[in-house]
Amino acid sequence: MKETGDRRQGTVLCLLFVYHKKYSFKETENRPLSPHLILKSMSLIKTDKVSYEYIRRDKDGAVEGINKAVDEIDLSVEKGDFIAILGANGSGKSTLAKHFNALLYPVGGTVFVGGMDTRDEEHLWDIRQTTGMVFQNPDNQIIGTVVEEDVAFGPENMGVKSRDIWERVIRSLKSVDMFEYRKHSPSRLSGGQKQRVAIAGVLAMQPECIVLDEPTAMLDPMGRKEVIASIRELNKTFGITIILITHYMEEAVHADKVYIMDKGRIVMQGTPKQIFTNVEELRGVGLSVPKVTELAFELRRRGVDLPEGILTETELANELCRTLSEAKHRKF
Amino acid sequence: MSVIADHLNYIYSAGTAYEHKALDDVSFKIEDGEYVALLGQTGSGKSTLAQHLNGLLKPSSGTVYVDGEDIFEKGYDLKALRGKIGLVFQYPEYQLFEEDVFTDVCFGPKNLGLERSEVELRAYEALKLVGLKDEAFFQSPFDLSGGEKRRVALAGVLAMKPEVLILDEPTAGLDPGGREWIFELIDRLRAEQGITVILISHSMDDVAEHADRLLVMNGGSLVMDGRPREVFSYYKELMQMGLDIPQVSRVMYLLRENGVNVSMDAITVKEALGEILRLF
């Protein structure tokens, strides 16, 4: 069954390829086709039984043991999705994320980004252009001495024309609300601002997807809010696919889909509402739920009439007002 | 051990174009055994303040008294002070450097000039206290996981047996389980050794749950000093400073706006639970 499926998919790909060659020859005359343009019908990122192992060595270089960090993960991300991946320290979420732009290659299984196998060296730059990455520490990601120069670094390296570079820089900085700081030195920005410059730097390469690995871990509450607001804006307004890896449950409530990882495997997946209903199971894998959800869960357990999976303060306040007024009516 | 900050002022790069007043007339007293949280936006002066309390930075004016003694007076033994006031920096695991875990933890007490047997005993006790598994004692610290490295770094400070422990965002980058573990460790240290804790934190939920007293810094000044529920009743002021209130407080705030008579004193899940159930 599976084989037929694959073959059918292959046929469709071939047809698409022929179609594309025939009708879009002119624009692409002098440069190779960028395959991720052709394969729009596919998932943007697809992993097929992906595994990754770290080899532990002692100080003489002899192998001491093998840690399976990612264990046969199947996952697919569609264009425009907002995905959150949660998991305790060491659950394998960062290792998995590094597969999405070919920083790591799977030991077993395959990762497709825009239809390209990440192990295919020929497509390395196409893959890195499709998925950009933002890491935890903003100081490790900023290299320019002026904000706008830092953001221009990516497109410059890609060989984008000078006029287009500035257009991209301006647009990227505007979309993370950092345009007015374009002439500033990054070293004098706050953590949240630095992190937004790092995001702009990735945006300037015009990726379809941005993977953010704990982007708010080192930020204060204001910085966290700014970064999360920027991320949501990029997803909603510009349709950029977002994969957010985080320890903060409150940040995952805005996602379309949440994956929970434990010991290298995906142990739960669903909408934030579905996931955060399982308070006890989440605790079992070293995670927690947002305080609001915990409060709602405890109230429900004591018989207060509330729906399952409340995620925000407003939701809880509104539901409490409703149930309170109903209780009042019943009394009379 | 009591700590008094007396009109502390600190100016970075004085006399240059980058002159910046990092501390502006900061005064307070922390009593023996208190559990204080220090809040403030990045750049508000929290870490600068912490570094004054164990004499790593010298104030431009004002001073610090520890157990009644001026620590910036000539002849004061600052080295001994750093054994008594332990400072755990942000991401302390980045500062591990020795060949194996045990030697790394020995570094602090060794510098205090203790006997070798005492140094090793303290290192062993500290590593046991942070719950590191025995097999890891003689591994390279760089082969440990992030969470284990943090434990080792904490052990390095605890091995000096400080009476006051200053922790600069000890939970940053840890998962909920790891964060809980840090707070359990602090509770244990308080219960067993009666140490004074000064916790620098960005998590309003955490400080609401654990600290007895909050100090709020803004632009180098100490702007609030009070019990958590007092401080968190200044919702608007805190937001203006780029801070926040606990999630639970926001629910109480919204309920009040909708005309439900609940007390803003409830700042933890447990307290809110009681307060809301009272309405039914």
Write a concise synopsis of the structure shown:
The complex is a heterodimer of chains A (332) and B (280). Chain A is an alpha/beta fold and 332 residues long. Helices cover 42% and strands 21% of the residues of chain A.
Topology:
The complex is a heterodimer of chains A (332) and B (280).
Chain A: H1 2-23, H2 35-38, E1 45-57, E2 63-77, E3 82-87, H3 93-97, E4 108-113, E5 116-117, H4 124-130, E6 131-134, H5 147-157, H6 162-175, H7 191-203, E7 209-213, H8 221-238, E8 241-246, H9 249-252, E9 257-262, E10 265-270, H10 272-276, H11 279-284, H12 291-301, H13 313-331
Parallel strand pairs in A: 3-8, 3-9, 6-7, 7-8
Antiparallel strand pairs in A: 1-2, 1-4, 4-5, 9-10
Helix pairs in contact in A: 5-6, 5-7, 6-7, 7-8
Chain B: E1 3-12, E2 20-30, E3 35-39, H1 46-53, E4 61-66, E5 69-70, H2 78-84, E6 85-88, H3 101-111, H4 116-129, H5 146-158, E7 164-168, H6 176-193, E8 196-200, H7 204-210, E9 213-218, E10 221-226, H8 228-232, H9 235-240, H10 247-257, H11 269-277
Parallel strand pairs in B: 3-8, 3-9, 6-7, 7-8
Antiparallel strand pairs in B: 1-2, 1-4, 4-5, 9-10
Q: Rough shape of chain B? A: globular
CATH superfamily of chain B: P-loop containing nucleotide triphosphate hydrolases
Strand order of the largest sheet of chain A: 6-7-8-3-9-10
Number of strands of chain A: 10
Strand content of chain A: 15-25%
Number of domain units of chain B = 1
What does this structure look like?
The complex is a heterodimer of chains A (about 325) and B (about 280). Chain A has about 325 residues and is of the alpha/beta class. Among the domains of chain A are: about 80-110 and about 115-270, 3-Layer(aba) Sandwich (Rossmann fold); about 290-330, no CATH class. Chain A is about 40% helix and about 20% strand. In chain A, the strands form 2 sheets. Chain A has a 6-stranded mixed β-sheet. In chain A, helix 5 (about 145-155) crosses helix 6 (about 160-175) and helix 7 (about 190-205) runs parallel beside helix 8. Chain A is globular and about 75 Å long. Mean pLDDT of chain A is about 85; it is low at about 1-40. Chain B has one domain (about 5-225): Rossmann fold, CATH 3.40.50.300. Helices cover about 40% and strands about 20% of the residues of chain B. Chain B is built from 11 helices and 10 strands. In chain B, the strands form 2 sheets. In chain B, strands 6-7-8-3-9-10 form a 6-stranded mixed β-sheet, with helices on both faces. In chain B, a hairpin with a 2-residue loop joins strand 9 and strand 10 (about 220-225). Chain B is globular, with a radius of gyration of 20 Å. The N and C termini of chain B lie far apart (about 45 Å). The interface of A and B includes residues 88, 136, 221, 295 and 316 of A.
